[in-house]
Amino acid sequence: MKYISTRGHVGQPANPEFCDILLGGLAPDGGLYLPESYPRIGRAELDAWRSLSYAGLAFEILSRFITDIPAADLKAICDKTYTADVYRHARPGDDTAKITPVHWLEQGRLGLLELSNGPTLAFKDMAMQLLGNLFEYVLAKRGESINILGATSGDTGSAAEYAMRGKQGVRVFMLSPHGKMSAFQRAQMYSLQDENIFNIAVTGMFDDAQDIVKAVSNDLEFKAKYKIGAVNSINWARVAAQVVYYFKGYFEATTSNDQQVAFCVPSGNFGNICAGHIARMMGLPVAKLILATNENDVLDEFFRTGVYRPRKTAETRVTSSPSMDISKASNFERFVFDLVGRDPRKVAALWTEVDAGRPFDLSASAEFARIGDFAFASGSSSHADRLATIGKVFEQYGVMIDTHTADGVKVAWEQIETIPADVPVLVLETALPVKFAETIREALGRDPEVPADLQGLEALPQRVEVMAPDLEQIKRFIVERV
Ligand SMILES: *Cc1c(COP(=O)(O)O)cnc(C)c1O
């Protein structure tokens, strides 16, 4: 399988393979990588795959996208990644061996697809754990190493650290805003004692940490000399890994391959739902992809109006579903590439506007007129909606959900009337409530349950360096440790 850039590789060598793009980020022309065509999955494959384990299904799907790793090696990587031991936090009564079990709220009609059973209790573990094993494998083959530098305000950083801890050839330097994360999130990251994990708490805001990462990435000489890499949400391997659970969710929620299913996805950077879009393009019987945002509704606005209006940093709201607080959606360009008939010149023209901080308007275009072909619907949610939804789900079903999943359930309730009664609607559960205890207390007047193996986490010794947001000082810290 060859990969292309959404902007057409202007002036660049074309068509790398999977391992060539695994360790990088953007394509050299500033675009995002996508497979040159989507593998078509027919009825025969669906019939053969229905009974597979998660790891078996992951191998079948990923081997369509990854043709430059020998099949036996890829199989071993999938088997090692998707185990009930790694993804062990299923709700009592749900089958941990399924990795992403469905927990029905209304049997056969409305369910949660549990994606947050991994080590850091958020869906990012689904892809990041695979990425850790892929990185280790490819780096060993090439005799190389990498130093991952990132900034996090919560879920991404911890998912990356738990995926990369103890991996040969990989070091992680993760910047976080000092004192700005929840006690649980801090304990999760800072209690790691692995030699190859470095936590740096920056005395500033998330944006200060992010600016330092950007400044280092723009210093091409430093970047090359110290082999600086990233694991951000535009990484193609993460999107590919996420395609798997859409298939698994379909098989869990239906009994026959004649049925259809709908997914409702709490969204920020459009990485999760982009994988759903690709699964549907491959031939998965998806009736509807429902996109849910919080108050930061740039994506909901696009699907309602055809106008994509990235927000300024100052316009970005701080909400109680913080992992969806984005001003522009970094993976959205992948969908727009398909929407405009995979024409890289059109994408490049649209993102000339976006990169200059201007909106684009497709409302009167022939492309937006065809948006119905892509089966999207959307909606948004507020803090009050979130509290009400968490309360109602707990009261009606005895199930505690997190703030992001609540945004999904709220929008799924709005849309469910438009979906035929024999089509199950699965809300993707993107985090467990214990990560957002403060809002759970506000909604329910009680504390969320802490998984047994994480009780006492906050009392463990922590390993973190507190530093000023000073570029030179942080560069020196890295240089002294690689
Ligand atoms: C990252 C994240 C999201 C948003 O996912 P995108 O791929 O950025 O759309 C939603 N919920 C949680 C809990 C997350 O960590």
Question: Explain this structure to me?
Answer:
By secondary structure, the protein is an alpha/beta fold. The chain has a domain at 96-120 and 237-444: Rossmann fold (3-Layer(aba) Sandwich), CATH 3.40.50. The protein contains 19 helices and 15 strands. The strands form four sheets. Strands 3-4-14-9-10-13 form a six-stranded mixed β-sheet, with helices on both faces. Strands 8-5-6-7-15 form a five-stranded parallel β-sheet, sandwiched between helices. Strands 1-2 form a two-stranded antiparallel ribbon. Helix 16 crosses helix 18 (437-444). The longest helix has 19 residues, at 124-142. The protein is globular and about 60 Å long. The two termini are 34 Å apart. Pyridoxal-5'-phosphate binds at residues 122, 124, 155, 233, 266-272, 323-324, 404, 430-431. The modification N6-(pyridoxal phosphate)lysine is found at residue 124. InterPro entries: Ser/Thr_deHydtase_PyrdxlP-BS, Thr_synth_N, Thr_synth_N_sf, Thr_synthase-like, Threonine_Synthase, TrpB-like_PALP, TrpB-like_PALP_sf. This is Threonine synthase. It comes from Parazoarcus communis SWub3 = DSM 12120. Residues 2-82 form the Threonine synthase N-terminal domain.
